Amino acid sequence: MSTSKPPIIAIDAMGGDIGLDVTLAAVAHIQKRYHDVRMIVVGDEPAIRSHKSFSAIDAARIDIHHTTQVVAMDEAPANVLRHKTDSSMWKAIELVRDGKAQACVSAGNTGALMASSRYILKMLPGISRPAICAVVPSRGGHVHWLDLGANVEAKPEQLVQFAVMGSELVKAVDEKPNPIVGLLNIGEEAIKGNDMVKETSKLLEKTDLNYSGFVEGNDIFLKEKLDIVVCDGFVGNVALKSVEGIAKYIQTTLEQEFRRNIFSKIAALFSLPVLRRTKARIDPRRYNGATLLGLQGIVIKSHGNADVFAFANAINVARLEITNGIIDHIRCQLDRQQNRPAAEEHTA
Amino acid sequence: MSTSKPPIIAIDAMGGDIGLDVTLAAVAHIQKRYHDVRMIVVGDEPAIRSHKSFSAIDAARIDIHHTTQVVAMDEAPANVLRHKTDSSMWKAIELVRDGKAQACVSAGNTGALMASSRYILKMLPGISRPAICAVVPSRGGHVHWLDLGANVEAKPEQLVQFAVMGSELVKAVDEKPNPIVGLLNIGEEAIKGNDMVKETSKLLEKTDLNYSGFVEGNDIFLKEKLDIVVCDGFVGNVALKSVEGIAKYIQTTLEQEFRRNIFSKIAALFSLPVLRRTKARIDPRRYNGATLLGLQGIVIKSHGNADVFAFANAINVARLEITNGIIDHIRCQLDRQQNRPAAEEHTA
């Protein structure tokens, strides 16, 4: 099992809106914090070695994998599959497939990362497409939420798979033995909702998951006993982005009001520690690093505009998933749900 | 036309989590602010007359319509249609149908209000079900957002109707001649999204609406040039409630941090005016009063837990829609979209 070996993480160093400025500094940051982590920095080797942030990296503890291409943030996935197989994103995923790394992290474009990952790593048995799973803060601590946009539509059976994968992720990463699953709907009463969620709910009740029934949008953040929220990718993506939008709007409004006049500016000085602590608790950078679940390998998607702190968090998510053997756990659980013998027996 | 007559609004006085404590005080509040508004207070007349808030009402400027039943907040719509036809909610809607009032306002349960309104008032020609339209704050001022949960599924043609009705509402209430419509999707690129939104987008381009294309969840709050956001009721309801959830979570977090120690408590004292102004700007009570669009009459839904200020806002929404002749505008525009002669010729 992977749990005893030191984790090796492939970093798509060229990906994201910013690229090397962020990714190399994050590599240095992770090196300082986790001494057993090895990283393979994938990208343009001369550019990497000559970059100002390279000096902060302990070069003895990384490998550099040279690539010549970069996937653009707006590039069509099909174009990447055809013409960008020497890109930093592509090679980082290949390193996972080839067992050279146990996870890869990219801030590159989501569509390209998903398509390339599916093509290179393949899906776990019984899973047709990956689901994007991210962590958001909540009254109970935090919640894992999926799918956040990998699939624009989902069948009830797929939503059940999302619940299974999400549960295994929480068991492994949060060390919760029996995580609570909620199904996102427009009302808690069973009569509400469309046919898809009703059918999914029936299926979820038949599983051995700790399924607590329907939850509403506000429950994601306010319900204390909730670990996993499941929905289709269209709903999840719209809701997550709406949440990001209002949070930004509230922040801007608060800043405007603190800048309004001399009295409010003085109040701002007094309030600085409070505002900083509040911001830290809801800081989306703390929650950066979404997992593409359902692949035969760990792929972590960072926000494209992540800064060093945020990108380092995404690398840390990869580290946690490696050390907790998340892929084996999911594979095993999917096999159980499908009433087949455990994965180990298949692959032995 | 209705614009010259003084507005008459039927108030479901018994509806909502709180009932008379809120509704009667809100009636008094509106009376003080708008001298030309008449209200018909619908509910248990002895209870209304003996209520402590009744003394604040100018009794000469209201009518009381006595009813014996109350619709419970968790009551099934079908039960209301069969057994609650002498309820305050039902009678308030009937007063609109019978021309005694030009709008009704209820904080009662959404499902019952929608089902009763459809049954009593009927839909406008070509509209199959109402859409719930609410106002949310945004960088550009505010945005009208629909559907927020009236329909768990919607066809492209219905989403186009939502856009038409929303546009007419904004034209009438906000006095914007050419309001900008966005279609909620998971990406701005036309290749993204499910078949439903792609088909809707094509249809919207063929209308004479000021359609600006796809918008994402964050755009609702952050895009300056946006007046109407259209989506199906499942997505809208989940996203709106998610937004309410994170806003509440941020507020609680901020309050906790301000209460943390003696220094933060002093900072809170200094910051009180700033926090109050910020809260006022994003206060959901200011935006209370969702319109059930598509009916042959004005029905305004207040939040069930609205307080006096919030419920008075919902009454004011009704007032604005009456004085702007919103139903005639929508009817006329729907007829135009359906390439039929204008409504006035039909009903003349």
From TrEMBL, chains A, B:
EC number of the protein: 2.3.1.274
GO cellular component: cytoplasm
GO biological process per UniProt: fatty acid biosynthetic process; phospholipid biosynthetic process
UniProt KW Ribonucleoprotein keyword: no
Molecular-function GO term, any one: phosphate:acyl-[acyl carrier protein] acyltransferase activity
Keyword Lipid metabolism: yes
Pathway assigned to this chain's UniProt record: Lipid metabolism; phospholipid metabolism
Cross-referenced InterPro entries: FA_synthesis, Phospholipid_synth_PlsX-like
Subcellular localization, as worded in the UniProt entry: Cytoplasm
Alphabetical keyword list: Cytoplasm, Lipid biosynthesis, Lipid metabolism, Phospholipid biosynthesis, Phospholipid metabolism, Transferase
Pfam families: FA_synthesis (PF02504)
Reactions catalysed, as given in the entry: a fatty acyl-[ACP] + phosphate = an acyl phosphate + holo-[ACP]
Function in brief: Catalyzes the reversible formation of acyl-phosphate (acyl-PO(4)) from acyl-[acyl-carrier-protein] (acyl-ACP). This enzyme utilizes acyl-ACP as fatty acyl donor, but not acyl-CoA.
HAMAP family xref list: PlsX (MF_00019)
Database matches in PANTHER family: FATTY ACID/PHOSPHOLIPID SYNTHESIS PROTEIN PLSX (PTHR30100), PHOSPHATE ACYLTRANSFERASE (PTHR30100:SF1)
Subunit text: Homodimer. Probably interacts with PlsY.
Family recorded in the similarity comment: Belongs to the PlsX family.
Name of the protein: Phosphate acyltransferase
Organism: Cardiobacterium hominis (strain ATCC 15826 / DSM 8339 / NCTC 10426 / 6573)
